[in-house]
Amino acid sequence: MEQTPELVAHRGFNLIRGTHDPHDVDCISKLEMRDSDVFVVTYPKSGTIWMQQILLLLEAKGDVAAVSAANKSCNGDVVSWIEVIGSREAFMTAPSPRLRVSHLPYHLMPVALTQKKGKVIYVARNPKDVLVSYYYFHQLANMLETPRSFEDFFEKFLRGDVFGSSWFQHLKTWYSHKDDVNMLFITYEEMIQDLNAAVRSISTFLGKELTEEQLASVVKYSTFGNMRKIPQANYEQVSDDMFNHPVGKFMRKGTIGDWKNHFTVAQNDIFERVFQSEMKDFPVSFTWDKTDVA
Ligand code: A3P
User: Fold this and answer.
1) Catalytic: 177?
2) Distance 252 CA to ligand 1 centre (A)
3) pTM, rounded to two decimals
4) What are 52-91's pLDDT values in tens digits?
5) Residue among 20, 103, 138, 170 flagged as catalytic
6) Where are the beta strands (DSSP E) in the chain?
7) CATH classification at residue 44
8) Is any ligand 1 atom within 6 A of the Cβ of residue 254?
9) Which of 20, 213, 240, 244 has the highest Cβ tally under 10 A?
10) Residue 62 sits in which domain range?
11) How many domains would you assign to the chain?
């Protein structure tokens, strides 16, 4: 079995060499939290940048021009990934509210979250669609090795031999702690099916008070079509060092069920067997069960 060269296994979780520093990541668990802190936690490719845009728009009461003006290159300038080198130091002295995203597993995140300080929004997505999205992202992102083939990447994903490690572990561990922290658990599929309702529940969870008009603006500027037109939201201005722009876009398709265009029948059988075995005791059935699981 060939190892993926960019990965560094650290305390049961794969980090990316050069993007994350294991020592720095270890310091995240000791961070002091403020009540106004918000972490969006996702397994990669589950809707992180979508939620970045929603948080920024809620904060700006729907004023899209203000959101774009605050972010020079991309929304990650302001709502950064806490585990990326340099982000933790900036977080410690940043003004409130500190809005951040993370792909870290529960055991590497700030322990102070368990004192119900700060909030977590966990976004889950059908892992079959995550796999497809991640396959394309590995072609776009220069810090990740371009997969030799879809088949090869399929196996790596199921082995958890990717940044983020096992999708199943990530989701199950975070979910099992949902009552230990202030958490809103939401799925990408819910957001696709009713963005208006999703934005309202996120707004309520964060204790925001927006008018109907402001909420409508948050929804409007967080649709796939509109986000794609906003350079900061769609990451088109990120440097060529990071992204190989000619091969694709961060905001690729934004749909449910693209896995059906990629999985063979045999791959779907394998995926289903792993899914059933990993998730058999998991207490939640997902919205995608009704439409997508063959
Ligand atoms: P696809 O590759 O399937 O298109 P992340 O931000 O966690 O890396 O997730 C990226 C995925 O979320 C991509 O999926 C991207 O297109 C999708 N996405 C981002 N913004 C979206 C939006 N407003 N509506 C629907 N999907 C969105």
Assistant:
1) no
2) 7
3) 0.96
4) 999 999 999 999 999 988 888 899 999 999 999 999 999 9
5) 103
6) 7-10, 13-16, 38-42, 99-102, 119-124, 183-187
7) 3.40.50.300
8) yes
9) 20
10) 7-279
11) 1
